[in-house]
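G., the chain you wanted modeled:
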Amino acid sequence: MFRTEISTTPHQHLITHQDSILTMGSCFADVMGNRLAENKFSVDINPFGTVYNPVSIFKLLSQAASNTSFTNEGIVESQGIYQHFDLHSKFGKGTKEELQAEVQQLEQKTTKTLADAKWLIVTLGTAVVYERSGEIVANCHKVSASQFSKRILSVKEVIRAYENVRNQLFQVNSGIQMIVTVSPVRHVKDTLVVNSQSKSILRVAVAEMTAFPEVSYFPSYEVMMDDLRDYRFYEKDMIHPNETAHDYIWEKFSGAYFDEPTRQLILKWQKLKRNLEHKPFHPASAHHQAFLKKTMEEMEQLSSQLNLEQEIQALKKEIL
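Predicted structure as tokens:
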């Protein structure tokens, strides 16, 4: 043995293609959300953009659950663009009114998504937070650092932030299941020492959160740190896990949250997906046209279990 493998056991509740899923949190929530979407799950991926600290994540969930509007005090103008301290930088408009309109639409959409979701996947990135006028912000939007104070959350603060939103979640969706993971992305900007402290706080907090019956923990952080445990599984920046690592973590996630029929369905779709990605030298040839027709038959058979309408319509255009 030259490594220590982390084994995952099937969760009490399992994800199916009939379930609606919402992911929120750090950029690893995007990674997991995109993997789910690629495999034909119904998923809304980080509707508020990437948010790294748990207080801001749970605040956004609270606002979505209660359909509470964002405060205008959080709006800031920087370099001619209006943004909100609770949201990712991608939400920016030329006027305050345009931003308010966009935020209102975002709130309404996410409130409905949360109400319909069977699963909420939350990825916590860091316990390091920035405060402005006593309020923790999700994003500083390149505003002068002099306007913020920086500190590290305590375990109690993280747990309290979830407790504050928990009742609201159940009021809007009594059957929701929550998967929490600590992001394996390293926050080296705050130094590796602080990153280690930050991840430890998040990990202890999540361990206590799993006392709530709706919360389960998926060990993506441990898989990266203690199972893969090698720089060849990182991107060139030595901060983000690479595609090989994502594949491996996804495999572990599948073992924990998908049953065997769901995994087999994913394998069938992946085979068809590779067929669709095939680029022939001679698209009009009899051989390729036969290949397309066979692929179409297989897709139509699978369409009773997965939503393949878009792919079927695109494939029809290629068949002569």
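The two ends are 54 Å apart (CA to CA).

Shout if anything looks off.
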